[in-house]
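dumping this here before i forget
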Amino acid sequence: MKKNILIVEKRLVYILIFVVIGQTSFAQQLPIYDQYLYNKFLIDPAQAGSDGYTSFNITAREQWVGYSGAPRTYSISWQTRILKRGYKIKKTIFNQTVFTPKNDGKVGLGGYIFSDKNGLIQRTGFQATYSYHMWLQKSIQLSLGLAFTGYHFIINANELSFEDTNEPWLTNNLRRGIFVPDVDFGIYLLNPRFDFGFSAQQLFGAAVKIGDYAYRNFRMDRHFYTFGSYNFSSGNRTELEPSVLIKISEQFRPQADIGFTYIYIEKLWAGLTYRTDGGLIANIRFRYIPDHSKWAALYFGYAIDFTLNEIQTVTYGTHELTVALKFGDSTRKYRWLDRY
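structure:
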């Protein structure tokens, strides 16, 4: 009897180690993206429709390839802007006839679905986003975004090897999973030369849970992102863009990405980023416009992440692939500007 209790306790401790890792490590509680510069919507809901494009993005990330139980993240996102379409005749209080758009072109929409797995912990969910864009000055746009998120949180205990198939833990409700709703908020400033953003994720901290009472102590930390970049023109065809991203959780474990990107005629991007927790990221991205296409462009991106910690000796690095399809790469792109 005593031996069986010790076995159960041992298994519980083993599983709880994975839970603690997922709850205390910033990088593992929420997915990390190396190519966030090309799709900031994944970290800031205010991004939805901010540039006037309608875009679809697919991201696949394999962290620490070759290491058993390493994080894997997959996501598909979409965002758009309800642009100014159609005009109507309207008279002002001074009896002047003017043409005004049927909508003001200030609303953005977006959403994505994702799957994020780290060891025994897996989250599969979605996000639905509403954003509103306004002008502070002629060339500076302020965007606000609010997103509703929901995900299924589960611990895959069946992936463990148990000596006793009748062990009580195998029938525990914890491994059945729960649905967790939450809310994200974001702010974004956009200018032709620079951008700046702030977002707060998991604002409820998973305080609202739909599931078994056993999860009453389950909690997710709030996470805060601050990011910005500035674009320097270095010639007729090339640009240089330094950038920074600072991430902080409620446990106050700050992490920063400091990067530098070379841009060639808006067709090729090549960058290098240093991550303060011990990582070096190289990424490349290029744009392809199909023949006879005036409205769509394809983007392909790849990033490789080398950690400077000891785990690198037993892995083949971290790899991330992105594919994006953007519509509106013509005059439609600029209709969101007030002057249009």
